[in-house]
Amino acid sequence: MSSSFATSQAVDQAVLHLKQGELVAIPTETVYGLGADATNEQAVATIFRLKGRPSFNPLITHFYSKQAAFEHVEANATAEALADAFWPGPLTLVLPKKKTSPLVAAISAGLDTIGVRVPAHPLTQDLLERVGLPIAAPSANPSEALSPTTAAHVRQYFADNPLLAQILDGGPCQSGLESTVMGFDTEKRVVILRPGGLSFETLTSFLGYAPSTPSASDPIKSPGQMLRHYAPRRAQVRLNAHDIKPHEALLAFGPTTLSAPYMRNLSVTGNLEEAASNLFAMLQELDACGAQTIAVMPIPTLGVGVALNDRLRRASVKSNSLV
Ligand code: AMP
Ligand code: MG
Question: Which parts of the chain are beta strand (E)?
Fold first, then answer.
């Protein structure tokens, strides 16, 4: 498998792989994705196989432009306005699939909708333009594991796996948290299905109302949102830590007097965007140091802090059998 900081030739090669139904790991501004031709049944099946992803968990499909994305879905006026304002960017719109769309059924995981997004990373934009295909791309990690924010993370997970043809190295992901996923209720009002890089506050001020979030009693609208997710391979995660116990590693946030032999600070100045871009890489590093538990200091639930806390809460859940 080839992987080095991507050049124009590397993008050419990725185009060929994708057209042949092979998988390519692609950089986005959120996390690295495992990309495949969304109109090729075999290619999409390989994504599920490589990730060990349950078939009930739908995939987000990536497009070069809003126009290309909306060829496949029934958009509404709010979706149009959101796409104009926030694409390219960390926003996924879940909309009814058009009958004419050739996207394979497995992408929707039994629903009648598709999640569509236009990513902002220049390398992937170049790739999407050149390949001229919709690219299904979940995060490039085994199911439930931490999301990759560097090409090295993807290599650690899949380098030896022949199902992955290429890793396009676009450097560390800028935003570091997955996209905000949103759907629409029967009145076409926005429902946030997964908090993400685009904050609740930004959306509220844009929409002129606070979008709703599904409550636990609602029927599941976004089936991939499992309780345990984003989990370190070995260590347990202890949230809202105000102290540090022997043998714990510390994931700090902001100025602190707490210390541990193994520690990282998401943002010494308490900047939530910086913390978001560091989250997955620092969890990986602390997991690799061999501590049994990673103690995480409290993080404010403001702006992108909502998505940060969502990921950490899921990382701390011991087993999906508790769901
Ligand atoms: P990932 O690919 O790991 O970033 O996860 C994508 C997530 O987006 C899924 O787990 C779902 O929660 C959500 N999603 C994608 N497509 C749909 C859809 N058609 N309907 C509802 N949720 C979706
Ligand atoms: Mg994921």
Answer: 23-26, 33-37, 60-62, 91-96, 113-117, 135-136, 164-167, 180-184, 190-194, 236-238, 248-252, 263-265, 293-296
3-class SS at 82? helix
Q: What pLDDT does 322 receive?
A: 37
Strand pairing partners for 288?
none
Ligand 1, from 44, 57, 74, 104: best to mutate by most atoms within 8 Å of Cβ? 57
Percent of the chain with pLDDT over 90: 88
How far apart are the CA of 138 and the centre of ligand 2, in A? 6
Mean pLDDT of 49-55: 95
Q: Which of 53, 62, 194, 311 to mutate to test the pocket of ligand 1 (most atoms within 8 A of CB)?
A: 194
Task: With cut-offs at 50, 70 and 90, classify the pLDDT of residue 84.
Answer: very high
Reported as a single tens digit per residue, the pLDDT across 206-237 is 999 999 987 665 655 666 666 777 889 899 99
Residue span of the structural domain in which 15 resides: 2-207
Domain CATH for 253: 3.40.50.11030
Cβ(241) – ligand 1 distance below 6 Å: no
197 lines ligand 1 (CB under 6 A): no
User: How many domains is the chain built from?
Assistant: 2
Whether 220 is covered by a domain: the verdict is no
| CA pseudo-torsion sign 227, 229, 233, 236 | negative
Query: Is the Cβ atom of 222 under 6 angstroms away from ligand 1?
Result: yes
Check: pTM over 0.90? Answer yes or no. Answer: yes
Do 126 and 250 fall within a single domain?
Answer: no
**Are residues 199 and 274 both part of a single domain?**
no
Q: Return the pLDDT at 220.
A: 56
The residues whose Cβ lies within 5 A of ligand 2, an ion, are 139
Residues 71, 168, single domain; the answer is yes
Instruction: Please name the residue whose Cα sits nearest to atom 10 of ligand 1.
Output: 224
Do residues 132 and 14 make contact, with C-beta atoms less than 8 angstroms apart? no
Boundary (domain end) residue, out of 186, 207, 228: 207
In whole angstroms, what is the distance from residue 253 CA to residue 250 CA? 10
